[in-house]
Amino acid sequence: MFKTALVIIIAVASVNLSAFADQALAASKNCLSCHAIDKKLVGPAYKDVAQKYAGQKDAAAKLAAKIMKGGSGVWGAVPMPANTQVNEAEARKLATWVLTLK
Ligand code: HEC
Q1: Atom 18, ligand 1: residue with shortest CA distance
Q2: What is the pLDDT of residue 63?
Q3: Could you say which DSSP state residue 100 is in?
Q4: CB–CB of 34/41 below 8 Å?
Q5: Which residue in 24, 60, 67, 72 has the most C-beta neighbors within 10 A?
Q6: What residues pair up with 80 in beta bridges, in sequence order?
Q7: Ligand 1, residues at Cβ distance < 6 Å
Q8: pTM exceeds cut of 0.85
Q9: Does 9 or 64 have the greater pLDDT score?
Q10: Is 85 helix (H, G, I), strand (E, B) or coil?
Q11: C-alpha 80 to ligand 1 mean position (Å)
Q12: Which domains does the chain carry?
């Protein structure tokens, strides 16, 4: 009984911690100077991004590529510059995190 509770607590805590780590990664890579989770800044709110791509299987790969290379025309006229400070693994991690935010 106690053991089960402990396992659950650890599982919940690590999920929360990894979401926190991903947000910290976004902050450290300067993403949050143009994006917020729930409101539009220079770029779209991450919640809106997650909703737009909900249920699309290749969304994480597509967004990871866009994060690295930048691009425009999906959310308006303002382009996102290439984020050369982000490697492929980090881009994939950030894209996956953004997609969880709906
Ligand atoms: C200089 C401002 C700026 C920075 C820095 C920035 N973004 Fe963006 N981002 C934008 C803009 C503007 C758009 C909308 C582009 C469009 O309409 O295609 C966007 C779009 C996006 C999208 C949605 C792409 C799509 O095609 O729907 C994601 C995901 C994203 N950004 C993640 C990130 C991540 C992760 C970082 C940090 C590594 C980051 N952005 C850094 C401005 C920025």
Answers
A1: 72
A2: 98
A3: T
A4: yes
A5: 67
A6: 71
A7: 26, 29-31, 33-35, 42-44, 49, 63, 66-67, 71-76, 78-81, 83, 86, 94-95, 98
A8: yes
A9: 64
A10: coil
A11: 5
A12: 2-99 (1.10.760.10)
